[in-house]
Design goal:
- By secondary structure, this protein is of the alpha+beta class.
- The chain contains 15 helices and 12 strands.
- A hairpin with a 2-residue loop joins strand 9 and strand 10.
């Protein structure tokens, strides 16, 4: 039994035929496509909300137009913070998508914390806005036939890149935050290349749609809409994009309430996530914590992303026989923990910020890296390779830039908050450097190779 088309659908079919003729498409083919719609496509009475229209879609679009570039830029800056010039950013080989390299600064010390916190928290906060924007354009996404002209084909391709790119980045990003390596592929590589797919779609879509967005926003007053209750909410006039319902139903809420619902959802996500970056009393409200939930005890009572047990290090390697090997100078230097404690000790209050968004600020005590470089016979190093006792992890070593080695607050930490480092936090020694991504603050350090200029 076939379903009879509604009057609105018949009108849409006739409109499609006229548009097909105007673009030089065969009228017979156009009529055939219009009459054989797949289930769910082009059924205008499925999308009857009187709130949908160019104005609401454009209002949500402007929010994303301002904020999504911030999420994108902070994500690309995070990639640069991993020092791709040393081949340690993931992916290492990106071809012509390589970003201009520059030396990631060590000041302010909270730079990476702010950058990555903004990237993750803002990305999560925008999820309700993205979903609302997709809801507002569902009739357009499900129209049939999907393409009516060569120009519309290009528009549809840009929309596919945009929607597919943003959904891929959100879904994979959230899964990576909450779960430990659930993908059958490299999240970091996929997230990087996915970002460029989104960027291409975003630029193309904005170029095509910006004039219509400006026109739509000027068609109605934001102040008036925020004062309009449900009882006086009316559909927008029919539009050429087909966003306005042909047979609108009675409103169940006003546009003011719809915007408030989306904004309230974003605010709730912010409250449940921002505390992991801001810290202090707000941390207790950060219920949407990333997977790094392990905590130490006492002075070591703060986040641990990778525990000592997970590192698979033989506990005997961190015992009395442990030695730190310094190389790069005339001859290697080996230091036990007592020798390191006998060297001048320095204290710095520095954050550790994880790529997943969480951050914690603690007070660290140890030997300055630049003092160790001098002890190794390389007082002015170009870089330093720090290696961990761990050999099974993806980040068992890290290359530090010259400014990161020579910063007066960059330490080989032996103590934290006045107590010995716990095994989970890197005992017998770990690196702590201002504004450095968390995984490059290498734990369970076994050697440092200082490389000459």
């Amino acid at each position: 039994m076939t379903e009879s088309p509604s009057r609105a659908e018949e009108g849409d079919a006739r409109s499609d035929e006229r548009q097909g003729d105007s673009y030089g498409f065969p009228a017979g083919l156009w009529r055939a496509l219009a009459r054989h719609r797949p289930p769910g496509f082009g059924r205008s009475r499925l999308w009857r909300s009187p709130l949908r229209g160019p104005w609401l879609t454009s209002a949500l679009g402007v929010v994303l137009l301002i904020t999504l570039p911030i999420v994108t830029v902070t994500g690309l800056l995070s990639y640069i913070a991993y020092a791709p010039q040393f081949g340690q950013a993931i992916p290492a080989e990106v071809g012509w998508l390589r970003l201009p390299p520059f030396t990631w600064p060590t000041r302010p010390a909270w730079l990476y914390q702010a950058n990555q916190g903004l990237h993750v928290v803002l990305g999560l906060v925008l999820v309700p806005v993205v979903l609302a924007k997709l809801w507002s354009v569902v009739p357009k996404l499900s129209s049939w036939p999907p393409v009516r002209s060569p120009a519309q084909l290009l528009e549809r391709l840009s929309l596919l890149l945009l929607v597919g790119g943003v959904l891929f980045e959100i879904v994979t990003g959230v899964l990576n935050i909450q779960y430990d390596y659930v993908f059958g592929f490299s999240f970091y590589a996929a997230h990087y290349f996915g970002a460029w797919v989104f960027i291409g779609g975003f630029v193309a879509h904005v170029t095509v749609k910006l004039p219509r967005v400006v026109t739509a926003l000027r068609s109605r007053s934001l102040r008036a809409e925020l004062r309009t209750p449900r009882e006086r909410t009316r559909p927008e006039p029919p539009d050429e994009d087909g966003l306005v319902a042909a047979e609108p139903a009675e409103p169940t809420l006003s546009r003011r309430a719809a915007l408030g619902l989306v904004g309230g959802g974003s605010l709730l996500v912010a409250v449940l996530t921002a505390g992991q970056v801001v810290g202090g009393f707000t941390r207790r409200f950060a219920l949407l914590l990333p997977r790094g939930r392990s905590q130490g005890a006492g002075p070591n009572g703060f986040q641990v992303n990778r525990t000592f047990e997970a590192s698979l290090i033989d506990p005997r390697e961190t015992g009395p026989g442990w030695r730190l090997v310094l190389s790069g100078g005339p001859r290697p230097v080996k230091l036990d923990r007592a020798s390191l404690l006998a060297m001048p000790q320095h204290t710095a209050t520095l954050p550790i910020a994880c790529v997943e968004g969480w951050a914690t600020t603690q007070t660290w005590t140890g030997v300055r890296l630049r003092d160790l470089a001098e002890s190794a016979g390389v007082p002015d190093p170009a870089s330093a390779l720090v290696a961990s006792l761990e050999t099974a992890g993806a980040f068992d070593r890290a290359t530090l830039q010259a400014n990161q080695v020579l910063d007066p607050a960059a330490l080989l930490a032996l103590r934290v908050n006045g107590a010995e480092l716990a095994l989970d936090h890197g005992y017998p020694a770990r690196v702590i450097v201002p504004a450095l991504p968390g995984v490059h603050n290498t734990k369970w350090v076994r050697s440092i190779e200082f490389r000459s200029r």
